[in-house]
Amino acid sequence: MFKPFHTLIIINLGLRLSRTMAVNYTTLPIEKKSLDRPPLEELAKVLSRGLLSNFEHVTVEVVDCPDLTQQPFTLAKKGLGGSPKLVEIGGVPYLLPVVKREKVYDLKKIATMIDSDPAFIIGAAAGPHPYAGVNCEGIFNMNITKGVVDQQTRISKVNPSNEEVPIQEILPNNETRVALLANLFFSSGQPGKVLKIHAKKRTGPRDFIASIRQTLVNEYKNKVVGMGGVFLLKEGKAKQHVMRDFSKTPINTDEELNNWLKFYNMSAPLVAVGTLINNDHGLDLRVQHFHSFSHHGEAGHYHIDVTPETVEYLGYFNTGEEIYRVDRPVETHQFGRD
After folding, report:
1. How many other β-carbons are positioned within 10 Å of the β-carbon of residue 19?
2. Which of 94, 192, 278, 309 is most buried, with most CB under 10 Å away?
C-alpha cells in the first residue's frame, strides 16, 4: 500500500539519524591493561570467608561451568572460558549531566578491534536508543562468530503510558549497538573451571556483588582483580531501576538522578550479568555494574535485594586476563555510578 508522503519523510529522516549516530572508529581511543588472576581455588577460600560478613549461608567452589545456555540462565554460549576480558565502554559522564547522543558503539566493530572472535559478550549497559526510540537499559547476552550474530540481548524501558510496568524486549540479530556506557565480559564462551558462589539470607548492608567486590578489595590491596559472569536471584525480590527517556534538563546530583530514574521491586527468578573489579586501575572505571532480565517480563539495573531474610543467590564467575577501556571520558565525575 502506498504510504503518505509525510510518512516517508519521517521514516527516511529516522534512518538517516540512526546511521549517522555513531562514533569514529578510526580515532576511537582504546587502552589495555593486564589483570591479576589469583588461582580460582585461592579465590574460593577468600570469598568463602569474606562473604560470611554479609550472608548467613555461603558456599564457594571451583566447578566445571554448567551449560549456561540452559534454564535458568539461558545465555548465548555455554561457558565463560577462552580469552576472558573485561571491557568498559564510555561512561556515566556521557549520560550525565547532559546526554551525548552520538556516543553509540557497534559491538561487532569493538570485538574486531580487541581481537575477540568468537566474542561471547555479557554485561550491563545502556541499550541502543536509536533502535529503541528512547533511552533504555541493556542486558547484553550475545555471541559473534566470524561476523555471524546470535543476539539474545534484552532491553528494558519505562512505559510512558504506565510507568509501573516496564517494557522488556529482545534485540534482533541485526542490532548490535550499545550506547553511552557499558561494562561487559568478553570470552569465547568455552566450558571450563569457574567460581560457583551460593549465598542465602543477607545479614549485612551490602548487595551480592558489592559483597564479592569488597572481599577482593580487602584481600588484594596490591593486585587488580576483575571478574565477570552471571548470577541468579533464585528467591526474593530486588530493587532495580530502569532509566526514563533522556532528561530535558541537566542532572547534576544523585538526588536529581534518583528522581529521574524509575525504581521497581522485581521478583525472582532474575538472571543478572555484568562485571566487577577491586579498583579502577587508573582507568576511571565503574567498579561494579550488573543488569538482570527475566522470562516474566521484568528487567533492569540491579541494586540490592529487598528481601534479606529469604533471598538466595547462585552465581558463576570467571576472572579476566586483561581489561580494555574504550573511549574513556576526558571530562569525568563520580556521581551516578551505583
Report:
1. 9
2. 278
